[in-house]
Specification:
Layout (H helix, E strand, L loop, with lengths): L2 H18 L1 H9 L3 H24 L10 H26 L5 H12 L15 H16 L1 H8 L8 H7 L12 H25 L4 H12 L17 H14 L3 H8 L10 H23 L5 H16 L14 H10 L15 H19 L8 E2 L2 E2 L2 H27 L4 H12 L20 H15 L3 H4 L4 H4 L2
Antiparallel strand pairs: 1-2
Helix pairs in contact: 1-3, 1-4, 2-3, 2-6, 3-4, 4-5, 4-8, 5-6, 5-19, 6-7, 6-10, 7-9, 9-10, 9-11, 9-12, 11-14, 13-14, 13-15, 16-17, 17-18, 17-19, 18-19
Length: 483
């Protein structure tokens, strides 16, 4: 393990995050929020100075290729470091006076979980609310993906970093050059954000609300500057806009690239996309039928509420327009099942991802066929391509480790004295980067009641979920540290 190799990339990433604090700093000055402006300025300046000093001392260090081990350590260390530094403005300004809670809120932002400890969101300074949503946006596409576009300028390759950080079982290269792929992904990401923000502003939101909600939607995060989330606007138009962009954000960004390059017909060859759209449609219809049968909403209201809640849970966004805990049992059951899934690989959503579930389902069907035809040769195809055995083993191992992480996290929550339902769905929501759950963490509640030590553990769970478990777990294996 060559620790000196990871210092420069880490400094660059932290330096970039510190520069991003300049945006909420300007908002704090504009909105005349002295405590917020002082905290942003002090953290921003001190972080930049430290980064520049460290970079000066490392200026003669020879840049080496980042290996697999260094990539895992760098990615994990990066997420913890930027979360720690980014929590300081909340803590120093007094917006969140408990550092454990400030760190939890920031990790929830960068990991795009959307779980919050705030009991009254709207009392926070606007600059803090903007920073809170901006952490979503930065973490959504991934700080590392952005760094990959910059690191080649310093002679540092980025493929290993992208593999260690990017969501999904595979990393699709849009361009032969991985840095160009990263730039293209961020270009699409920015474009979708701006388009949604403009539409939300046209629908009646202020520019501030429009951009903060767009940050959270495209990042599939769920933070809102309103206590009642998207439901605070009581606008069907706004809700439909958010629904559409949540569904778009749950798609692989490789498919978005095909759309904008005139290859839209090719996207429906994607098995995962077809399953994603079918699951969204079928679950929405089932929930809508249940809501309409019990006369909770009109026909249009039932469809809208069903599509919103199905989309927000399936894509792990976590917005709310209604308290689904008050819905009929069948509708709640559908919402609960969706917490085990997640949207498409290569998207900003969390969870297991549909491609893994599809692969395991095909594997299960093949195993049933083996019982009847033990000498048959069975092959799994996805999008017309053979799924290799090593990928199937990797997916099986991931699902197992994911389940172990969820159960362990639930056990830790239960030790604090909360109910089994709250503990289990808190684990599902944090590891799956969903946000709301059931029990005491429903769509209108928060995580404030958990003890500080549980919040620290849940913070680690959120980062593990964002980095898809393997990246963090591999660091704690004995084989990882052997030469």
């Amino acid at each position: 393990m060559n620790f000196s190799t990871i210092l420069k990339p880490l400094i660059i990433i932290v330096f970039f995050v510190a520069l991003c604090m300049g945006v909420p700093l300007m908002l704090a000055i504009y909105y005349k929020e002295p405590a917020a402006s002082e905290s942003f300025l002090s953290v921003m300046v001190s972080t930049i100075v430290v980064c520049l000093i460290l970079f000066y001392f490392l200026r003669h260090q020879q840049i080496r290729r980042i290996g697999i081990r260094e990539s895992f350590v760098l990615v994990a260390l990066c997420w913890f470091t930027i979360s720690f530094i980014s929590a300081l403005p909340f803590y120093i300004s007094g917006a969140i006076p408990d550092f454990s809670e400030a760190f939890f809120e920031t990790v929830s932002g960068f990991s795009t979980t959307g779980a919050t400890i705030l009991t009254d969101i709207e009392v926070l300074p606007k600059s803090m609310l903007f920073w809170r949503s901006l952490t979503h946006w930065l973490g959504g596409m991934g700080i590392i993906v952005l760094a990959v576009a910059v690191l080649p300028l310093l002679g540092i390759g980025g493929l290993q970093l992208l593999k260690a950080e990017a969501p999904g079982p595979t990393v699709d290269k849009i361009s032969p050059r991985i840095s160009e792929t990263a730039k293209t992904l961020w270009g699409i990401y920015i474009g979708l954000t701006v388009v949604e923000a403009m539409l939300l502003n046209f629908a009646g939101m202020s520019y501030f609300d429009a951009f903060t909600h767009a940050f959270s939607t495209i990042a599939t995060g769920g933070f809102s500057p309103k206590n009642a989330s998207v439901g605070a606007y009581h606008s069907a138009f706004i809700e439909w806009i958010v629904i559409v962009f949540m569904i778009l954000a749950g798609m692989s960004f490789t498919l978005h690239y095909k759309i904008i390059t005139g290859k839209a017909r090719q996207i429906f060859k994607s098995t995962e996309l077809r399953v994603y759209l079918v699951v969204t449609a079928v679950c929405s219809l089932l929930v809508a039928a249940d809501l309409y049968y019990h006369k909770l909403y009109s026909l249009h209201g039932s469809v809208r509420q069903a599509m919103f809640q199905v989309s927000t849970i399936l894509t792990t966004t976590g917005f709310a327009t209604a308290d689904y805990k008050q819905w009929p049992a069948f509708a709640q059951y559908i919402i609960f099942l969706l917490m085990f899934s997640g949207a498409c690989s290569g998207s900003t959503s969390g969870g297991v991802k549909l491609i893994r579930i599809i692969t395991l389902m095909k594997l299960a069907v093949n195993e049933l066929k083996y019982l009847i035809h033990p000498k048959a040769i069975m092959t799994i195809f996805i999008d017309g391509n053979v799924v290799k055995k090593d990928m199937i083993y990797s997916i099986s191992a991931f699902v197992f480790l994911y389940a172990v992480t969820v159960l362990t996290t639930a056990c830790i929550c239960a030790l604090s004295g909360v109910s089994v339902l709250t503990s289990f769905t808190a684990a599902l929501s944090t590891v799956g980067n969903i946000g709301p759950g059931f029990g005491r963490i429903g769509p209108v509640e928060n995580y404030h009641f958990f003890a500080d030590w549980v919040k620290w553990f849940l913070s680690v769970a959120m980062i593990m979920g964002r980095l898809e478990v393997f990246t963090v777990m591999v660091i704690f294996t004995r084989a990882f540290w052997k030469k």
